[in-house]
Design goal:
Length: 479
């Protein structure tokens, strides 16, 4: 039967119908076919984790945090972000929303401009990989964005290199405080005791279930497993009907994110409190990887799952359970005849936990920054955050409590379900270059999931390599 494969090419999405062989998607050749993601290619995701740091400029950009034009309303319109009364300005707003989320942000920009007399925002969209490479250079030359979006795990790196400005006074002027947000999300925008990001949203990992496949396995399609016992019983029932019901990816995206979530669920962590040492090879990490390996060895997942094959199998009725990001919501809605649901991650270990990231607004440290543009940027940031219920439609959870509690957001059933995870989401530590370890984590997970090495040895080897990178970064960034 022909099935719809939603593909993303240069930010454009289309539904491609094709017949898939029974075993397609289990080998690396499936890298050629991508299921829909609102934003990310796997390459983009690696960049979000810090893979583009080599393209950043080690020298400080602009004038540095000293004399920060973002911290004072002594010049410019002086309205603290509530409104703007200065001369006409045009703001360059850069982001990487090239996928299905792009039109939602573009509409917000259009609506904002329509309400403003003296602020005109021009949105510049780049692939994330290009965005993180170009922003530091553009800022250094004074031609970069005035305001931009960065992922949470990029803030420390760009702050350490003075690409972005501290925003404590901006938050104060906007009357934003930790009480307005989930504490984990609010604290995620800080580095070295200063705030560098104003959180817009959270995008956590979620648990998707294919209702038709569950029915084929004799399961209640409206009752996905929520505990380890329920999960194992479900995959056993599916296996009895000849269904490999929980495909395990050996790639960071999504197997690595699943493993990180499990590490936290088993009571562990990825790094020491100060972010200088990898501790993911301790018992919690081994238990997490062992759980995933057992799914493969037990016949609940095929071996050697190709990149994105677990998602393609889910779309095509071959996989019942999928651990993937909130950004898949709109993509799955576009696939005809796909009967699915999404909810919080099942609790496999002793604790509730889920991997997540966040988009944060930042103001760049351009040379000779116009204070009026700083004031206008505050107004723009404040306005978008207040209207982030509209942004949530792109497949996000608003960061601000009042928006999440609004009737408009509560109408988004899938996003609302995943928003319930906010009290126990986990972010990477605010350490410059921390994302450089993602490739090492992926390698460790692969060694285990591909049955090339036992979980303890795979993670010991990965942790040793990770410690070397963390030490190098500490020296590079003088952290």
């Amino acid at each position: 039967m022909a099935k719809c494969i939603v593909v993303t090419t240069q930010g454009r999405r289309a539904c491609r119908y094709r017949a898939l062989p029974e075993n397609e998607g289990r080998v690396a050749s499936m890298d050629r076919i991508r299921p829909a993601r609102n934003r990310h290619t796997r390459r983009d995701f690696m960049v979000m984790g810090g893979g583009a740091t080599a393209g950043l400029i080690l020298a400080g950009c602009g004038g540095g945090p000293e004399g920060n034009p973002a911290v004072s309303d002594s010049t410019g319109s002086g309205t603290g972000g509530a409104s703007y009364s200065g001369p006409k300005v045009q703001l360059a707003f850069w982001n990487g929303f090239t996928g299905g989320d792009g039109p939602f942000m573009q509409q917000l920009v259009k609506d904002f401009n329509a309400e403003q007399k003296d602020i005109d925002v021009k949105m510049v969209v780049l692939e994330w990989v290009d965005f993180y490479a170009k922003v530091p250079q553009a800022v250094s030359s004074g031609t970069g964005p005035d305001v931009a979006i960065m992922h949470l795990n990029q803030l420390a790196t760009n702050a350490a290199r003075t690409v972005i400005l501290p925003l404590d006074d901006v938050a104060e002027n906007l009357k934003l405080a930790e009480s307005d947000f989930n504490p984990i999300v609010w604290q995620g925008g800080e580095y070295n005791g200063q705030r560098y990001g104003i959180p817009l949203d959270v995008h956590p990992l979620g648990f998707y279930y294919n209702k038709k496949v569950m029915e084929q396995g004799g399961l209640d399609p409206e009752s996905p497993p929520t505990t380890n016992d329920e999960y194992m019983a479900a995959v056993e029932d599916l296996k009895a009907k000849g269904i490999e019901g929980s495909w395990v990816s050996p790639f960071l995206f999504t197997g690595g994110l699943q493993w990180e979530s499990l590490v936290w669920q088993f009571g562990g962590d990825l790094y020491s409190d100060d972010g200088t040492e990898a501790i993911f090879n301790e018992q919690a990490g081994v238990d997490a990887l062992t759980w995933m390996v057992d799914l493969v060895e037990g016949g609940y997942s095929p071996k050697n799952v190709g990149q994105d094959a677990e998602t393609i199998a889910f779309q095509n009725g071959k996989n019942a359970f999928l651990w993937n990001g909130i950004w898949m919501i709109n993509a799955f809605k576009e696939i005809p005849d796909l009967e699915w649901g999404v909810t919080q991650l099942p609790q496999i270990g002793t604790e509730r936990a889920a991997w997540a990231s966040s988009h944060n607004f930042v103001i760049t440290n351009k040379q000779d920054q116009d204070p009026n543009k700083i004031d206008a940027s505050k107004v723009f940031v404040n306005w978008v955050i207040d209207h982030s219920a509209e942004w949530a439609q792109s497949g996000q959870v608003p960061a601000q409590n009042s928006v999440r509690e609004s009737a408009a957001f509560n109408k988004l059933n899938e996003q609302s379900a995943l928003a319930e995870q906010l009290p126990y989401v986990h972010f990477p530590p605010p350490v410059p270059g921390i994302g450089d370890v993602d490739t090492i984590i992926e390698r460790g997970v692969q060694e285990g999931v591909l049955l090339k090495s036992d979980p303890q040895q795979a993670l010991d080897d990965a942790a040793s390599q990770a410690d070397e990178i963390l030490a190098e970064n500490a020296e590079k960034y003088q952290a």
